[in-house]
Amino acid sequence: MKICFYVRISDPKVLEIIGFYKQDIVALRKIDPSMKIATKIWEIDWKADVIFVWWWTYAFIPVLFGLLLKKAVFVTGTFNYRCPESPIDYFRRPFYQRVLIKFSIRNAKLNILVSKNEFDTIKTEWKLKNLAYSPHGVDIEKYKYSDKREDFLLFTICWTGKYNLRRKCLPELISAIDRIRNKVPQVKLYVGGRKGDGFEEVKNMIIDRKLNDSIILLGEISEEEKISYYQKCTIYLQPSKYEGFGLAIAEAMSCGAAVITSRVGEVEYLVGDCGILIDGCEINDIADSVIGLMLHKVKNKNYGYKAAQRIRDVFPIERREKELFELIKDNV
Fold it and tell me: pTM higher than 0.90, yes or no?
C-alpha cells in the first residue's frame, strides 16, 4: 500500500520538531517504508493509495481530488470546535472557511480526531459516521519515568510567538512566580521553546519584575534536554487557555512529573486524577497550586507515579500506531 503524508507548512524541518507529526510519520512508514511526504499541495503523490492529511484547514483540495480520482483521503488533528479562547475556533472562522472545512470533514474517507471531547461533540451535532477517535501516544521507552526530582525546579514549554505565549498563559506564569518566590525563594522556572515575535516582550516582563534569577529562558532545546527537564523538575507547569490534546503534558507525565495545568480541551481527560487541574489561568490559582504541591513532597511524588502509570496504560505510542494501521486497512 502506497501512502502520501501531507501537511501544509513552510519549513519541512518542523516535521522533526513537532512531536505529533513525527510520531505519525514513523507509524505510517511502518505501513509504507517509501511513503512520500508533501508540504506543498503540488508535492502530493496522487498515485498513492492513501493521502494522509494533517488538519482540515488544508484538506479541501486533497479531499476534492480524492473524490475525483477515487483515492482514500484520511484527515487527522484537532478541530478547534467550540473553543472560544482559540482565534481559530471553527465558529470564529470566516464563512467560506467553515464551508470548505465542513466539505472536507463530510467527504473525507475517514476523519481521525485526537480529542475524545471533539469526537463526541462533532459526532452528535453533525451526525457523521466517517469519524474515528485515536489520541496521540507517548514513547514510554524514550520518555522514561524518574522519581529523582530537584527541589523547587519548575519547567514549562512555550514557543514565544505572541499568540502562543498568551494561549500558554506565560504572562500569568511570570506573575505567579513573582508571588511564589515570596513563599519559596528558591523557586526557579525554566522555559523551553523556540524564540518567537513575543520573546522580547517576555524578556522585558521578567526584567521589570526583577525575576532574572527565578525565570530562565532556555530558548530552543533538544529532545534530550527536554526529557532531562521532564525527569528532574519538581512540577511541569502548563496552564493554558486551550489545548487540542496536550502532548507536552503527556510527555512530562510519562517521565513522572507532577503536572499543574488547566481544565481545557482534551487535557481534563488526558490528566484524569493524576495531576492538578485549575479553572483557567488565574495567577492566584497557579501560585497557590504550585506552593501547595512544592511543599508537599509525598503528594507530589504520588501524582508523578500515577501520571506515568496513566500514560503507560492509556496513551502509549504503540496504541496510536496500531489504531492507524487498523483504520487505514479497514477503510481502503
Answer: yes
